[in-house]
Amino acid sequence: MAKSSQPGNADQGGGSTLTEPISLVASRRHTVRFAALDIQHALVRAQLREAFDRVLRSSAFTLGEEVEAFEDEFASYCGVDHCVGVASGTAALALMLRAYDIGPGDEVIVPAHTFIATALAVEHVGATPVLCDVQQDTGLIDPVAARAQVGPRTAAIIAVHLYGQACDMDALGALAGSRGLLLLEDAAQAAGAWHRDRRVGSLGAASAFSFYPGKNLGALGDGGAVCTDDALLATRLRRLRNLGQRAKGEHVEAGYNERLDGLQAAFLRVKLPWLDEWNAARRARAADYAQMLPDWVDVLEERVHAPCTYHLFPIRLVERDAVAAGLQAARVQTGMHYRRAVHQHVAWRGRPARRGELPVAESWAATELSLPMHPHLSVGEVERVCEALGALRTVRLSATSAARMARP
Ligand SMILES: Cc1ncc(COP(=O)(O)O)c(C=O)c1O
């Protein structure tokens, strides 16, 4: 699917008049939205309202039967024995680490190109995140770079299935196995994705999911889950999410208040049966993009054994910011995931946990642009985006040739 595995090979000439002609034609067209949760919710509105009424009648607002039912349904969807619903994806990551007793003195390898929550969760349990570079063509953790980061204090590696594509779990599994490390998944962006014949979430010792509204499987507020085949770990997680409570009024460890709400679980139960269809629609639009995008645009490399569920549709461009402005003028919404690598955030200043350079993560941060992507995006809208991008190139070329022609 990749048009090129080389980032940022877009022409750099011109650029100052990038947005002008586009804005002239844009006014008569509707905005191509980055996401469209309203369409999704209109589709299942009756069921969502029914789910709301069900919870209202039961008054089971924190944990309770809807949470238990969702946990069973999501565990079986992912192909694991246990799912433990929690309050967010960040909580899922932190509790997963806590449940393995990862804490002060331990190091955890995480990719430098990810949503910052992956690294923050490691900090939250008192362990040290060690940032690792990513692959040029997928933006996913690079197993070779990960191997170089393993030291005597390394306890785990977190494989982040960014953009909806599974990491190279064969190589990471071999590395973890040979060095006695835990291999954990951050599957926040990849609900429903496959790696060979297994679903994401069933590939490591345990996996963390986010049900933030914009995710492929999103609640109507925050939510998350940890999946695992390990019964003891699941029991510990149930305790940790509920203030260390083993039985009512019996607190056996210093846990947290990180429970999944009954309402969110009930809403997630409405949406889960749609997830495969919505992911298939995302893939169909991704295929349309791949066909229609100008050939100077670099798209995500998709591996055969790890079909991407396109939580996002990232492209890479040297003139990313100018192109984003041009698309905005053409009424195409875009995003950046992420414009800073983890170590480039203010929150990271003064932290020691970085061994070596992270050039690929930094180049993703400088060049990534996310195009509109959601299950209800139309082929016509993809066409609009591609047309707008194509026109930007024309503008840049003509600006370059104009400069050339102006030379004496
Ligand atoms: C890769 C990744 N990890 C973790 C998280 C954190 O999830 P939440 O926002 O539910 O805490 C997100 C959410 O954006 C994410 O994209």
Distance between the termini: 44 Å
Q: SSE string, helix = H, strand = E?
A: HHHHEHEHEHEHEEEEEHEEHHEEHHEH
**Which ranges are low-confidence, i.e. pLDDT below 50, for 5 or more consecutive residues?**
1-28, 399-408
Strand composition percent: 5-15%
Instruction: Report Rg.
Output: 22 Å
From the spread of the alpha carbons, the general shape counts as: globular
Percentage of residues assigned to helices? 40-55%
Count of the domains: 2
Round the mean pLDDT to the nearest integer and report it: 90
Count of DSSP H/I helices? 14
Q: Which ions, cofactors or small ligands are bound in this entry?
A: pyridoxal-5'-phosphate
Assign the CATH class of the largest domain: Alpha Beta
Task: Give me the secondary-structure category.
Answer: alpha/beta
The CATH architecture of the largest domain comes to 3-Layer(aba) Sandwich
* Beta-strand segment tally: 14
CATH third-tier fold name of the largest domain = Aspartate Aminotransferase, domain 2
| Main sheet attributes: strand count, strand direction, barrel closure | 7 strands, mixed
Detailed description of the structure:
With 408 residues, the protein is α/β, with parallel strands linked by helices. It has helices spanning 20-26, 37-43, 45-58, 65-78, 89-99, 117-124, 143-149, 169-179, 231-240, 262-271, 275-292, 320-329, 359-367, 379-406; strands at residues 82-86, 107-111, 128-132, 154-160, 182-186, 194-195, 198-199, 206-210, 224-228, 245-247, 250-251, 298-299, 313-316, 368-371. The longest helix is centred in the last third of the chain and has 28 residues, at 379-406. The model is unreliable at 1-28 and 399-408 (pLDDT under 50). The structure holds pyridoxal-5'-phosphate. Pyridoxal-5'-phosphate binds at residues 88-90, 114-115, 117-118, 160, 186, 188-189, 210, 212, 222, 224.
